[in-house]
Design goal:
Elements lengths: L6 H23 L7 H34 L4 H24 L8 H5 L5 H7 L5 H53 L1
Length: about 180
Amino acid sequence: MAASGDAWVREYNEAVKLADDINNMISERSSLPTTGPEAQRHSSAIRRKITILGTRLDSLQSLLSKLPGKQKLSEKEMNRRRDMVANLRSKVNQMASTLNMSNFATRDSLLGPEIKPADALSRTNGLDNSGIVEQDDGLEKLEDTVISTKHIALAVNEELDLHTRLIDDLDEHVEVTDSRLQ
């Protein structure tokens, strides 16, 4: 088992707390009116937290792929951690589908399927070890940036949807008031 000071375990526990918070917010949603600005704000807050949780899960997955070189974990522990992330990701996808977040994309739908080892090998011909390591580091940073940008874009999209609905609602109220005035 991992040490209690393990950064990955701490990060995972924070992600679980966030998932629990989201579940509580989804439960609270039933006590709110089904329409109106308060319900929209609540749904938007849930969507933002789901997006943040998605980013944390991507970060956990990335940390997990870097752990074997930094820490000595057994294959069993690595598989257990992969399963933990997969189970939490499944819960996140269920929460997202509850809120009809159909644009909550998976890594493969955004970045494409994993590169086959043969393809990766052909691209590294002519590079020495330091060149390959440098290229890997650059690609990892690029992946982190792209994933972060994706989640920011999803959060902005959700916020824009909320504002559009609020403006439509305001427009409807203005029309009603205008007809009353006439």
